[in-house]
């Protein structure tokens, strides 16, 4: 649904906590009349209490680290407040209010320019959700852009949650089925992606509170359509690429798979058989054809019996296989993969293969054709009610890799439907996010992330400095030498709109933004995106896992980027 950008946010309930002081009165939220911040003091260095071993950190950075330690409780409450404000892009719930809330965050940070943009009707015929933009002139030579996902998925199975999904309760990891973490925040959007975004925002606020200004200028772009194929952001970049013209780098990024999303609909009206205007009484199945059964039969002809191999001729055209070097990397990754534990943490009974290498390969170079949902007819749980549906719709996403093409996949799907005898089945393109190979790992921003990890005493070259969960730690807390990023939830992490920002090869170029992206900048821990009991770790067993440690990585990375210049910064204009 189209967002109403004129909605008024209740500022008293959405502001970040005042810097340097505790809140003595919880703010109101649309999710709860009296939200509770149910935790005792968070241990910033984790339950083992061992602080990072700093290496060459200057006073302006170490002072920020101390500030984060002193204010971590407030920082966790900032995340709780935000999660208590729903922002569900597929339904529109809380979208305008959350847009104004995030604009307030940017105002609090001191950005001279903040604005909520309405991208209007997108090329897919659907209104885009708002884009929140901020520009902060710190008088620095270099400018870093941040991309923020502000929207979340809906809650489809509330009874499966250990606490209400918009309460943002702090529970023990054991209560939430992740005993390796002492305390986690449970809530919709906790890991995807309000936890990571608030971690970055807290770090920016802390740096400015201590030093008066940031070491870099900022351009902040927050979108509320990530869960709708980034359709609003795509439109915004088409319209306003100039707003990112001064950006020298994107703080965090990396390669992205492609994803194209379609809806398929079988109806009696288009078919010319069965009910044509509305659902009718189920007794009529004795004498009438069923669009619902036709839809199920149609889908069965598009996929193998095990549901894993698409039967769509030519849909993998152009697919790029891994190089020998990438195969070696996948084999190295497979040596460290515990498929049983990974499956449990994802909520799976098991993977479709017991071969770790095949799981690693499929996670990075595989493609897929998914049935995301299907509806029509009697949708009420329990009970009875005889219905012969006149229309059935199913949703599908195709995950694809370089050098496949989303629009070619849609074309091949249409051709296959027609060849199978289903010309009457209607197909709607919801959106397409092309693949991206990312930027050079030698870009200044990526080098800065590696230097930041070294500053904090993390491992040097050859180790996964930003691994995000306990599977990647030795028993003594040291990070395992993997050399690749792996998460419990997903071996690759899914798509994101990298193609709209990257200066590297992309599946489709939209707009004129082309900037290096920070490869591997990932701190903190979280999981269960899109699932029940989504969480963000606020207190880990060691400092690397917790929220305070993640904020310190942001601070260190920005300071290091300000000191690392092999590429001349772009000309800057003064704030308007």
Automatic annotation (TrEMBL):
GO terms for biological process, alphabetical: proteolysis
Annotated signal sequence range: none
Pfam family, one: Peptidase_M20
GO molecular function, one term: metal ion binding
Keywords carried by this UniProt record: Hydrolase, Metal-binding, Protease
Designated name of the protein: Acetylornithine deacetylase/Succinyl-diaminopimelate desuccinylase
């Amino acid at each position: 649904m189209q967002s109403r950008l004129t909605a008024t946010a209740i500022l008293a309930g959405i502001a970040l906590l005042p810097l340097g002081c505790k809140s003595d009165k919880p703010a109101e939220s649309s999710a709860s009349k009296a939200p509770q911040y149910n935790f005792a003091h968070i241990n910033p260095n984790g339950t083992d209490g061992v602080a990072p071993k700093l290496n060459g950190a200057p006073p302006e950075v170490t002072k920020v680290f101390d500030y984060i330690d002193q204010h971590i409780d407030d920082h966790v409450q900032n995340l709780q407040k935000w999660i208590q404000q729903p922002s569900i892009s597929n339904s529109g719930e809380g979208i305008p209010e959350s847009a104004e809330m995030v604009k307030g965050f940017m105002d609090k940070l001191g950005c001279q320019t903040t604005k909520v943009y309405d991208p209007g009707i997108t090329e897919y015929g659907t209104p885009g959700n708002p884009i929140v933009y901020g520009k902060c002139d710190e008088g620095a030579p270099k400018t870093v852009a941040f991309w923020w996902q502000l929207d979340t998925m809906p809650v489809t199975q509330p009874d499966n949650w250990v606490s209400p999904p918009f309460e943002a309760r702090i529970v023990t990891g054991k209560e939430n089925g992740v005993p390796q973490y002492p305390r986690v925040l449970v809530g919709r959007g906790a890991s995807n992606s309000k936890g990571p975004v608030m971690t970055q925002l807290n770090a920016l606020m802390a740096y400015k509170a201590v030093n008066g200004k940031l070491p870099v200028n900022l351009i902040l772009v927050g979108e509320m359509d990530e869960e709708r194929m980034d359709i609003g952001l795509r439109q915004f970049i088409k319209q306003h690429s100039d707003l990112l013209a001064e950006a020298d780098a994107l703080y965090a990024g990396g390669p992205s798979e492609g994803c194209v999303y379609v809806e398929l609909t079988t109806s009696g009206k288009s078919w010319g058989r069965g009910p044509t205007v509305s659902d009718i009484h189920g007794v009529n199945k004795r004498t009438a054809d069923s669009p619902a059964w036709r839809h199920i039969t149609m889908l069965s002809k598009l996929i193998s019996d095990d549901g894993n191999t698409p039967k769509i001729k030519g849909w993998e055209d152009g697919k790029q296989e891994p190089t020998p070097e990438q195969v070696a990397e996948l084999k190295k990754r497979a040596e460290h993969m515990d498929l049983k534990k990974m499956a449990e943490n994802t909520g799976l009974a098991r993977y479709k293969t017991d071969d770790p290498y095949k799981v690693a390969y499929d996670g990075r170079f595989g493609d897929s054709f998914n049935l995301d949902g299907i509806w029509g007819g009697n949708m009420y749980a329990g009970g009875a009610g005889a219905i012969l549906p006149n229309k059935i719709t199913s949703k599908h996403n195709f995950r694809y890799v370089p050098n496949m093409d989303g629009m070619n996949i849609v074309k091949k799907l249409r051709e296959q439907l027609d060849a199978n005898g289903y010309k009457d089945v209607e197909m709607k393109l919801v959106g397409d996010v092309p693949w991206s190979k990312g930027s050079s790992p030698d870009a200044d921003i990526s080098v800065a992330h590696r230097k930041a990890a070294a500053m904090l005493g993390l491992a040097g070259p050859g180790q996964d400095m930003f691994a995000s969960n306990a599977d990647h730690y030795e028993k003594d807390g040291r990070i395992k030498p993997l050399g690749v990023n792996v998460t419990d939830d997903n071996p690759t992490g899914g798509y994101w709109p990298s193609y709209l920002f990257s200066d590297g090869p992309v599946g489709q170029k939209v707009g004129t933004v082309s900037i290096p992206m920070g490869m591997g900048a990932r701190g903190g821990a979280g999981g269960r995106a899109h699932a029940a009991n989504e969480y963000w770790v606020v207190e880990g067993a060691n400092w690397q896992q917790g929220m305070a440690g993640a904020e310190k990585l942001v601070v260190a990375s920005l300071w290091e980027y300000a000191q690392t210049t092999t590429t001349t910064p772009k000309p800057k204009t003064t704030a308007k």
